[in-house]
Amino acid sequence: MKRPALILLSIALLALLSFPASADKKPTSKASLQKEIDLLNSQLKANAKDRDKAQQNLNLIQRKITKRKALIEESDREIHSLGDSIRTCEKMVAVLQDRYDTLDFYYARLVRNAYKNRDSRLWYMYILASEDISQGFRRFGYLRSFSREMSSQAEKIVETQTELDARKKELSSLREQASELRDRRVEDVSKLKGEEADAGKLIDQLKSDRARYLKELDKKKRQMAELKRKTDAIIQKKSAEAKRKASTEVDSKLSSSFASNKGKLPWPVDGTVTGSFGEHPHPVYKNVMLPFNNGVNVTVAKNSAVKAVFDGTVASIHVMPGYNQCILVQHGSYFTLYCRLKTVSVKEGSQVKTGQVLGVVDTIDSEDLLHFELWKDQSPQNPENWLR
Prior knowledge:
Helix content is 59%, strand content 16%. By secondary structure, it is α+β, with helices and mostly antiparallel strands. The chain folds into 2 domains: 3-207, no CATH class; 222-385, Distorted Sandwich (Glucose Permease (Domain IIA)), CATH 2.70.70. Strands 1, 2, 3, 4, 5, 6, 7, 8, 9, 10 and 11 form an 11-stranded antiparallel sheet that branches. The chain starts with a helix and ends in a 7-residue tail after the last strand.
């Protein structure tokens, strides 16, 4: 295969390649992770002068370390993707450069031939010297074709040069993005090391004052147990009322609709989960379990609005030690609980819609935190399995 044809085939093959997504194509995940890290930093700053917050701060820092590692992993994926894009673009530039050089070579040869025969009288004589009119037309056609070929070659050179310049510009941009991304990754790795060092200091602090922090842990256990007892009692009462009413068709449809939205319910607040559902071992003290969490704790920005995750009826508004105001919303046989509220925007018995503001998160012991629970009858569920 001749060289020009090989070049054109290479261009066609490369054109079929799809470029991997660049770093700017998927900002959502990294932006979300950074937002959560910023929120955790804000909470840590609020706790900075309070030595009693060692346990809480350790939890926040450990969560931040998890998010930071996820951020670094995302950067690694983007750097790899950019690397693929750069290599593909480099191949395209090389092929276009080769094409440009070839076109330029043949055009130069055409120009030289035209220059040698630049005297227009030679062209006329060439035609007039024809043996017959048929040969004259053929020679005229050849000269006209030669002129068109020169114009065509010039146009192709300009087009190729334009495309080559665009690809070189794209390549430069990709390399710049990759460089910035690598710099940010180095910065994130450095911050991660600092965060791990901070976690180590807090672990040492907790170890040195075990009795004091275990006493605080017992207090939290009592508060959580009281919240569970109160919530269970209200749900039991509401369930009994529903049975006496023979559970209306509306309640049945609401329960079914709620269940069908498992994994698709909106979050009640915008924040980051800093306390997961269930029972977990203490991060420092061996053979010590943290209080069983019937829901999730979500660290939020100050004065964050809390919204209903589904249509329902406000079953109860009550105050609990350590949780301030709590709202229990009934969705047929399902219930959602929103605690640690400073203000409440609804009343008992009122109907609420998905996304309706229920109240505002309170700042308790320097913490801006929503405690959220989801129950099926008298059985607490893991909210993270239900929320999207």
